[in-house]
Every structure is written in C-alpha cells, then in structure tokens.
Design goal:
The chain is 27% helix and 28% strand. It is an alpha+beta fold and 232 residues long. It has one domain: Nucleoside Triphosphate Pyrophosphohydrolase (Alpha-Beta Complex), CATH 3.90.79. The strands form three sheets. It has a five-stranded mixed sheet with strand order 6-3-8-7-10, with helices on both faces. Strands 5-4-9 form a three-stranded antiparallel sheet. Strand 7 and strand 8 form a beta hairpin. It is globular, with a radius of gyration of 17 Å. The model has no long low-confidence stretch (mean pLDDT 95). It catalyses: isopentenyl diphosphate = dimethylallyl diphosphate.
Length: 232
C-alpha cells in the first residue's frame, strides 16, 4: 500500500509533536501482515481510517515489585488523545528493519524499549528485551476528534521491573503507580471526576486487564499469540 499524501494544517499544534508525525508506521492487513508503510500523520487521519487504513501498535503495561501498574497521563501537546490517562507506554513500531522483525515479536519489543526511554526516561538496561512478555493482540478503532483517530492492531506487552523515571514533558503530563483497587476506582469514577482515558486502555481494562494482573507472577496461561481480538 502506498502512502497517501494528504495536506494537513498543523498550525496551532506543538512543533515537536508535528515532527513526530513524520515517523513511518507499519501498515498491516486485518490479519496483521505487513503490507507497506505510511507516516504517522497519514495513519491517524480519520479520512484514511474510514477507508480502512490499519497500522501496527503496542501497549506496554509496566509493574513494580509491589505489582502496581505505572499509569501515564498523556501530555497536553499530544495531537491524539491529549491529557488522557493510559497504560505505561503506547506507540508504534516503525517501518525499519529492526522494528519490522517479527521473530518472537522482537521488533515490537525493540520499539517498546525505545519509546519507554523517549517518553519516560527508562534506561534500556532496566527493561531488557527478554523481560517483555507478549500476551496477545487487539484490533480496535476510535476517533480522537473530527480529524484524528486510531485504527490499530495493538500488541500487548507486560513487564515487571523497578525503573528510574525521567519524564519527557512533551510526551507525558504525569505518572503514578496504582494498585488493582485504585485502578478500579479510577475507572468507576472517571465520569464523575472528569478523568479522560484512552479508548484502547478502556477496552483492555474492560476485557482483559484484571485477569492478567491476577496472574502477573506467572503469565503462561495468559499468553495467546495467535489470536487477534476484534474489539470494534
């Protein structure tokens, strides 16, 4: 699939976030076969999403030694889903040889390690590739506003590690560790408190999160590498 050249008026958007819109994402079909590449801008325009454009993504859930989940609140500068709370790190493997490598999901894991450092300042040696556990994939679609949205096959990665944080304020507004009870309370009171949550995080919370969290110290029974869960 060839990238569509769509003109977009980026006036008023953050300069660094606009620059990142030039990164090349991996286009996939509904069975997650790589079929081409397109820049992040093109992938996230609703006019292209409405035509079926689909790309590969990942969501990292990082837990500390107390089995608390690290949440982030996306920065106000983000073009899609600004100020929303979400799991530890969410982004895209890029259309480069190292991140296109599908053996043992190594390309996605490399992308996760890269973005954990970029967004949260987590050093790669604190999150070695071998510690990431790939659980499954979800396929979802969601608008962010009238112009932007997401249509992704999202790889779910769990990792348990003690990490040092050095937050990139252009990416992340705030962070906090939460227990299961605290997470449930955040979800239950989100409408009342005005807490905004990313759509993929809400889907994962509703369908999977707590049964995986309960088995965090032995995730073997949770691993489902062949299924793509259609949460459309």
């Amino acid at each position: 699939m060839q990238q569509q050249d769509t003109a977009v008026d980026f006036s008023g958007y953050d300069e660094e976030q606009v620059r990142l819109m030039g990164e090349m994402c991996i286009l996939v079909d509904e069975d997650d076969h790589a079929i081409g590449e397109a820049d992040k801008k093109t992938c996230h325009l609703m006019e292209n999403i409405s035509s079926g454009m689909l790309h590969r993504a990942f969501s990292v859930f990082l837990f500390n030694s107390r089995n608390e989940l690290l949440l982030q609140q996306r920065a106000s500068e983000k073009i899609t889903f600004p100020d929303c709370y979400t799991n530890t790190c969410c982004s895209h493997p890029l259309a480069t040889p190292s991140e296109l490598d599908e053996a043992e999901q190594i390309g996605v894991k490399r992308a996760a390690q890269r973005k954990l450092e970029h967004e949260l300042g987590i050093r790669p040696e604190q999150v070695p590739l071998g510690k990431f556990r790939f659980l499954t994939r979800i396929h979802y679609v969601s608008p962010s506003d009238g112009q932007w949205g997401e249509h992704e096959i999202d790889y779910i990665l769990f990792i348990k590690a003690e990490v040092d944080l050095d937050i990139n304020p252009n990416e992340v507004r705030s962070v906090k560790y939460v227990s299961q009870d605290e997470m449930r309370q955040i979800i239950a009171t989100a409408d009342e408190t005005g807490t905004k949550l990313t759509p993929w995080f809400k889907l994962i919370d509703t369908n999977f999160l707590y049964k995986w969290w309960d088995q965090l110290d032995d995730l073997s029974a949770c691993v489902d590498p062949d299924t793509i869960h259609r949460l459309l």
